[in-house]
């Protein structure tokens, strides 16, 4: 599923998204993530910010239930400027390869903080959109 040009531009402009996953029992888990949009797919890294473990809940959830949602939103007290895009899709984890390398390069271009991090040896979550909804300035 392709995002419209307006939806893609709105999402790509955002600095953070919310990634929602669910475990095998359907219990939801949502976290803010940094991301890039490349060739119709979204990529978010497991970066070097302090974490208790590399076996993050979002990765464990994707193993048992690859259906995820990403929400990109913009809030303003001027409600005529509100907007959001929700992407529902299938996630998997990339551990290397050309696609992983291209996503790492794009993440470093978008986020200066990733330039010194060793993202090459860390997993990336790839989300392939299957359904897209949008509202307001993103529609």
Summarize the structure.
With 139 residues, the chain is of the alpha+beta class.
How does this structure look, described?
This protein is 22% helix and 38% strand. The protein is an alpha+beta fold and 139 residues long. The chain has a single domain (5-136), classed as Pnp Oxidase, Chain A, CATH 2.30.110.10. The protein has a seven-stranded antiparallel β-sheet with strand order 2-1-5-6-7-4-3, with helices on both faces. A hairpin with a 5-residue loop joins strand 1 (17-22) and strand 2 (28-33). The radius of gyration is 15 Å and the shape is globular. The mean pLDDT is 94.
Structural features:
139 residues, single chain, Pnp Oxidase, Chain A, 7-stranded antiparallel beta sheet, globular, 3 helices, alpha+beta
Reconstruct the topology from this structure:
Blueprint: H1 5-13, E1 17-22, E2 28-33, E3 36-38, E4 41-45, H2 57-64, E5 67-74, E6 83-94, H3 98-110, E7 124-136
Antiparallel strand pairs: 1-2, 1-5, 3-4, 4-7, 5-6, 6-7
